[in-house]
Amino acid sequence: MWLAIVVGLLVSYLLGNLNGAVCISALHHDDVRSHGSGNAGLTNFIRNYGRRQALYVILIDAGKTVLACLVMGLLLEPYGYYLEGRTLGGLMVMVGHAFPALLGFRGGKGILSGLFIGISVDWRIAVIALAVFLGIYFATRYVSLGSVLGATTLSLGFVLFYYDNLLVMLCGIVMGALAVFMHRANIIRLLQGKERKTHLFRNIKE
């Protein structure tokens, strides 16, 4: 079983290194991280390339996340730990997304990954976290604030639904905490009133 765990964790982490924003910006012979906030995430991509190509970013990041959860789950299923495997795979793909060794450890903040981890593990958690994100975003136009509160809700969802499964619950807490940690600079700007509002559903560039 330990070999399956090691292989699953490594595969999930490496899948996390496949960053959608970096991949699509590379098609333009560019690097999204050289623009705006310097972050390899969906928001920075939309700000600099518009939302028409954002779908490809979403597909890549969603695909790698779901695949990581599935692979890790299948590896541990013979040992009776399918749910735990999916959750561990989700945690490691998020770590790989945030700290990608193949991209100089300059990755994204993990919000999109967190959403699809929630979908892969328990759709109820994903729906609640997404509802919080959208509610806060439409009320304030602050993607970062919606992301932080959505990530916090993700963790709370795992606590609520999996309090009887310590490993799954702890993985969920760590995932939410990691996403919040990745937004630490945004949190400081929010507190200082310097955070930039974003119109995700309005084209900036075509």
Which value, in Å, is the CA radius of gyration? Answer: 17 Å
Would you tell me the structural class of the helices and strands? mainly alpha
Task: Report the principal-axis shape.
Answer: globular
Spatial gap, N to C terminus: 49 Å
Number of strands: 0
Report the sheet with the most strands, covering strand number, pairing sense and barrel closure: none
Estimated helix fraction = 55-70%
Low-confidence region ranges: none
User: Average pLDDT across residues?
Assistant: 92
Q: What letter string, H or E per element, gives the SSE order?
A: HHHHHHHHHH
Q: Which strand-content bin applies to the residues?
A: under 5%
How many separate domains? 1
Number of helices: 10
Q: How would you sum up this structure, described in words?
A:
With 206 residues, the protein is mainly α. It has one domain (2-192). It has helices at residues 2-16, 20-26, 42-49, 54-76, 82-98, 111-121, 123-140, 143-161, 166-182, 184-192. Helix 1 runs antiparallel to helix 4 (54-76) and helix 1 (2-16) packs parallel to helix 5. The longest helix has 23 residues, at 54-76.
